[in-house]
Amino acid sequence: MRQQIVAGNWKMNNDLSQTESLITDLKNAKKTSKAEVMVAPTFTNLYKAFEALTGTDIEVIAQNMHFAENGAYTGEISASMLKSVGVKTVILGHSERREYFNETDESLAKKVDAALANDMRIIFCFGEVLADRKSGNHESVVESQIKKALFHLEASAFKNIVLAYEPVWAIGTGETASPEQAQDMHAFIRKTLADKYGSDVANSVSILYGGSCKPNNAKEIFSKPDVDGGLIGGAALNADDFFAIVNAF
Ligand code: PEP
C-alpha cells in the first residue's frame, strides 16, 4: 500500500514564539490515522522545530532550497544546510515559488537533482491555473510540468519523490477541486508516470492533493483511490484543524 502523507506548509507565517506554541499544540494532538505527518516551518525556525519535534512522529521539512551546494547566492539555502539542521525532505515547485520567484520547470529540475544528490526526499508540487482548467488544458499543463522537471530521472529516483497536485485556483482561495476532479487528475498523473516508468513505479508514488483542503472536505478527498494525502496550507496553522485532516484517513 502507498504511504499516506499529510504535510503542513506554514509558508511565511509564525515567528519563533508562534512556532513554539503551534508545535506544543501539535504535540498534544491525538493521531488516530497511519498517515505520515510533516510540517514545513520557515527557514529561521527549522532547527528549533526539529529539536522540539525530535522523538515524535512529526517530521520537519523545508519549503524550498537552492540547487547550488554553496557560494554567491545571497539569501539562499542549500540542501546540505538543510540536512545539517536535521531536515531530510523539501517541498519544491510550490505555485507561490513559481509565481512570485520565477521558478521554472527547468530551474526546478536542477533543484530536484540537487535534493536527490543529497539523499533528500522531495515533495514536488505542480498544478494548473484557472485559465488552463477553464480551457480544458489542465491535463496537458500538468503533464508538461511533470515531464520537464522529473522525466530526466531514473526510475529508482521515484522512491524519494512524493507528488503534490495543487490546482493554483484552489490554493488559499477557499475553492477546492471536487473529489472527482482530484481523482481524475491523480489517475492521469499516475498513468503519465506508468507510461514512462511502468506501473510498479507509478503505483508506488504517493500523490497528494493541495488546495483549500480542510477538516470538512478532507475525508471525501482522501477517500479517492489515487489520492494519498494532502499538502495543507491555511488549515495547517491550527493544530486541531491540521490533525482533523491527518485523522480524516
Ligand atoms: C498550499 O499552500 O500548498 C495550500 C494547499 O494552501 P491552502 O491549503 O491554504 O489552499
SSE topology sketch:
Layout: E1 5-9, H1 16-28, E2 36-40, H2 46-53, E3 58-60, H3 79-84, E4 89-92, H4 95-100, H5 105-117, E5 121-126, H6 130-135, H7 138-150, E6 161-165, H8 179-197, H9 199-204, E7 207-210, H10 218-222, E8 229-232, H11 239-246
Parallel strand pairs: 1-2, 1-8, 2-3, 4-5, 5-6, 6-7, 7-8
Helix pairs in contact: 1-2, 1-11, 5-7, 7-8
Bound molecules: phosphoenolpyruvate.
Task: Write a brief structural summary.
With 249 residues, this protein is α/β, with parallel strands linked by helices. The chain has helices at residues 16-28, 46-53, 79-84, 95-100, 105-117, 130-135, 138-150, 179-197, 199-204, 218-222, 239-246; strands at 5-9, 36-40, 58-60, 89-92, 121-126, 161-165, 207-210, 229-232. It is 41% helix and 14% strand.
Structure description:
This protein is an alpha/beta fold. Helices cover 41% and strands 14% of the residues. It contains 11 helices and 8 strands. The protein has helices spanning 16-28, 46-53, 79-84, 95-100, 105-117, 130-135, 138-150, 179-197, 199-204, 218-222, 239-246; strands at 5-9, 36-40, 58-60, 89-92, 121-126, 161-165, 207-210, 229-232. Helix 1 crosses helix 11 (239-246) and helix 5 crosses helix 7. The longest helix is centred in the C-terminal third of the chain and has 19 residues, at 179-197. The structure holds phosphoenolpyruvate. Phosphoenolpyruvate (PEP) binds next to strand 8.
